[in-house]
Task: structure prediction
Amino acid sequence: MEERFARRLFLPDVRGAHRYLRVTWHEDTSTVVYSHWQDDICLASTPVSLEEASKLIGLIVGALKEAALKPVEAPPATPTPGGFLNRLRERFQPQSAQVLKLQDRLRHDRPMRESYSA
Result:
Protein backbone atom coordinates (compact mmCIF):
# COMPACT_ATOMS: atom_id res chain seq x y z
CA MET A 1 0.00 0.00 0.00
CA GLU A 2 1.43 3.36 -1.04
CA GLU A 3 1.75 5.96 1.72
CA ARG A 4 -0.12 9.19 0.94
CA PHE A 5 1.00 12.63 1.99
CA ALA A 6 -0.68 16.02 2.08
CA ARG A 7 -0.35 17.78 -1.26
CA ARG A 8 -1.43 21.12 0.18
CA LEU A 9 -0.32 22.99 3.28
CA PHE A 10 -1.74 26.16 4.84
CA LEU A 11 0.54 28.29 7.02
CA PRO A 12 -0.90 31.28 8.92
CA ASP A 13 0.85 34.62 8.53
CA VAL A 14 2.27 35.78 11.88
CA ARG A 15 0.87 39.23 11.14
CA GLY A 16 -2.69 37.89 11.22
CA ALA A 17 -5.35 39.77 9.24
CA HIS A 18 -6.64 36.51 7.70
CA ARG A 19 -3.45 36.11 5.67
CA TYR A 20 -1.76 32.80 5.00
CA LEU A 21 0.67 31.02 2.74
CA ARG A 22 -0.60 28.04 0.81
CA VAL A 23 1.96 25.55 -0.48
CA THR A 24 0.76 23.05 -3.07
CA TRP A 25 2.54 20.13 -4.78
CA HIS A 26 1.78 19.76 -8.51
CA GLU A 27 2.96 16.34 -9.61
CA ASP A 28 2.14 16.91 -13.29
CA THR A 29 4.63 19.80 -13.56
CA SER A 30 6.99 18.74 -10.72
CA THR A 31 6.52 22.12 -9.07
CA VAL A 32 5.68 23.38 -5.63
CA VAL A 33 3.51 26.50 -5.77
CA TYR A 34 3.78 29.05 -2.96
CA SER A 35 0.75 31.33 -2.97
CA HIS A 36 -0.08 34.25 -0.70
CA TRP A 37 -3.71 34.56 0.36
CA GLN A 38 -5.84 37.02 2.27
CA ASP A 39 -9.19 35.53 3.16
CA ASP A 40 -10.18 33.72 -0.06
CA ILE A 41 -8.25 35.96 -2.46
CA CYS A 42 -4.92 34.86 -3.94
CA LEU A 43 -2.59 37.88 -3.91
CA ALA A 44 0.45 36.25 -5.56
CA SER A 45 1.83 32.87 -6.49
CA THR A 46 5.28 31.54 -7.24
CA PRO A 47 5.72 28.14 -8.90
CA VAL A 48 9.11 26.68 -7.97
CA SER A 49 10.82 23.63 -9.47
CA LEU A 50 11.24 20.67 -7.18
CA GLU A 51 15.04 21.03 -7.37
CA GLU A 52 14.88 24.66 -6.20
CA ALA A 53 12.19 23.91 -3.59
CA SER A 54 14.50 21.38 -1.94
CA LYS A 55 16.79 24.28 -0.95
CA LEU A 56 14.01 25.47 1.35
CA ILE A 57 14.46 22.35 3.47
CA GLY A 58 18.06 23.32 4.22
CA LEU A 59 16.99 26.82 5.22
CA ILE A 60 14.27 25.54 7.55
CA VAL A 61 16.54 22.91 9.13
CA GLY A 62 19.20 25.56 9.75
CA ALA A 63 16.65 27.94 11.31
CA LEU A 64 15.26 25.19 13.58
CA LYS A 65 18.78 24.18 14.63
CA GLU A 66 19.73 27.77 15.43
CA ALA A 67 16.53 28.32 17.43
CA ALA A 68 17.00 25.05 19.35
CA LEU A 69 20.61 25.85 20.28
CA LYS A 70 19.91 29.40 21.43
CA PRO A 71 19.92 29.57 25.25
CA VAL A 72 16.71 30.71 26.87
CA GLU A 73 16.76 32.74 30.04
CA ALA A 74 14.82 31.17 32.88
CA PRO A 75 11.99 33.31 34.25
CA PRO A 76 12.78 34.99 37.56
CA ALA A 77 11.97 32.84 40.57
CA THR A 78 8.87 33.86 42.47
CA PRO A 79 9.37 34.38 46.17
CA THR A 80 7.91 31.63 48.31
CA PRO A 81 6.38 32.19 51.69
CA GLY A 82 8.82 31.65 54.51
CA GLY A 83 8.58 28.95 57.06
CA PHE A 84 10.47 25.83 57.88
CA LEU A 85 8.17 23.41 55.99
CA ASN A 86 8.26 25.44 52.77
CA ARG A 87 12.06 25.70 52.88
CA LEU A 88 12.34 21.96 53.56
CA ARG A 89 9.91 21.13 50.72
CA GLU A 90 11.82 23.42 48.35
CA ARG A 91 15.13 21.83 49.24
CA PHE A 92 14.05 18.23 48.68
CA GLN A 93 11.51 18.64 45.90
CA PRO A 94 12.83 17.06 42.65
CA GLN A 95 13.84 19.60 40.04
CA SER A 96 12.68 19.00 36.48
CA ALA A 97 13.79 20.56 33.24
CA GLN A 98 11.83 23.49 31.89
CA VAL A 99 9.64 22.47 28.97
CA LEU A 100 9.57 25.02 26.17
CA LYS A 101 7.37 25.19 23.10
CA LEU A 102 9.32 26.05 19.97
CA GLN A 103 6.58 28.44 18.84
CA ASP A 104 6.78 30.40 22.13
CA ARG A 105 10.57 30.42 21.92
CA LEU A 106 10.54 31.78 18.38
CA ARG A 107 7.94 34.39 19.32
CA HIS A 108 10.13 35.44 22.29
CA ASP A 109 13.27 35.70 20.13
CA ARG A 110 11.63 37.59 17.21
CA PRO A 111 12.18 41.36 17.44
CA MET A 112 8.93 43.28 17.60
CA ARG A 113 8.28 45.51 14.63
CA GLU A 114 6.12 48.58 14.55
CA SER A 115 4.30 47.58 11.38
CA TYR A 116 4.37 45.03 8.61
CA SER A 117 3.76 45.50 4.95
CA ALA A 118 1.27 43.24 3.17
The longest strand covers residues 41-49. The CA atoms of residues 18 and 40 lie 9 Å apart. The mean pLDDT is 78.
